TrEMBL record:
Active site residues per record: H236
Pfam families in the record: FMN_dh
Record protein name field: L-lactate oxidase
PANTHER family documented for this protein: 2-HYDROXYACID OXIDASE 1, S -2-HYDROXY-ACID OXIDASE-RELATED
Molecular function terms from GO: FMN binding; isomerase activity; oxidoreductase activity
Residues given in the record as FMN binding sites: K212, S234, H236, D267, G268, G269, F270, R271, G290, R291
Entry similarity comment: Belongs to the FMN-dependent alpha-hydroxy acid dehydrogenase family.
Organism: Anoxynatronum buryatiense
Cofactor(s) the record lists: FMN
Domain FMN hydroxy acid dehydrogenase: 37-339
Keyword rRNA-binding applies: no
Keyword field contains Hydrolase: no
Amino acid sequence: MKYQEIRSQARSILKEKCKVCEDCNGIACRGQVPGVGGKGLGSSFIRNRVMVRETSLNLDTLVPATETDTSVTLFGKKFRFPFFAAPIGALEINYHPSLNDLTYNEHMVAGCREAGIMAFTGDGAKMEYYEGPLKIIQDNEGVGAPTIKPWDNAMALQKIRMAEAHGVTALAMDVDAAGLVLLAMAGTPVYNKSVEELKELCDSTALPMILKGIMTPAGALKALEAGAAGIVVSNHGGRVMDDAPSTIEVLPAIAEAVKGKLTIFIDGGFRSGEDILKALALGADAVLIGRPFAVAAYGGGTEGVRVYAEKIGQELKEAMIMTGCHSLADATPDKCWKR
Ligand SMILES: Cc1cc2nc3c(=O)[nH]c(=O)nc-3n(C[C@H](O)[C@H](O)[C@H](O)COP(=O)(O)O)c2cc1C
């Protein structure tokens, strides 16, 4: 399948909830939560995308011609590209019932693995939507990272044990889901987490723990203190609070605080290979992409996911050639142009 076919197929399926816009920027879907948009006026989602667009890469081709290496090694595993699929949950409600949290993750985990990368899977009120993806990850040689909600520690510990039993690569917790009242209404409340509580979880497992939803240097230092292996600089795609800063704006200060001590992921508005390179140049080790991977899965299933990943992988390689980067280590802040 060609990428444009995947998109037009997705457009015909998703028409009510997601317009599959040329630039997935949060404008057409603003305020649609449930749905695919950002909360409130959608300003956090929109700002994520605007600020990624406003970050420019600049040309630097006067370097020796050598192979361009797009690979990254994280948590002992080598990946072909430094980007991954972000966890997306409640698919039937947010997108369309043609995929649910199980069938979606079947496509996502397999498609990412075929492309040499990894999918993060989600969690929710129903245990089957956590356990099902765990089995899918296990069937894919453990290449995948489940993301648990900030439940009380007893429930979180139970879910950590389940992840360990399925041989996953890493385990994330979206700590920025603390305010999701819908989960409390479903009888499964989520909470703010203290450093002590997080430390109990991190200390309990040999799995690398990634805290998703960190937006300040102070938050990143707390993650470090708690024993996390990584963080995702994220505002949950703008879905948990209106008027947050964009993730790419807060990245440099966070990188200054914890680069080399924690693996730094970022997400929010990254769409192309050029966008990935901008994030790496400003201090991220890898990028998660949410909505465009969901569109790829709806429009083309496993193949759609693989085709989208290959497409941005190729864009990344070309952007690296144009900015004089032989490997990801060459993606330094000077690759971004400043006014
Ligand atoms: C419909 C939808 C559902 C989501 N569900 C989850 C989830 O269950 N767990 C989670 O950690 N993040 C969830 N996210 C947030 C994404 O993982 C990611 O942080 C965000 O989509 C990144 O922004 P982008 O879509 O602009 O790339 C969801 C996002 C969307 C759009």
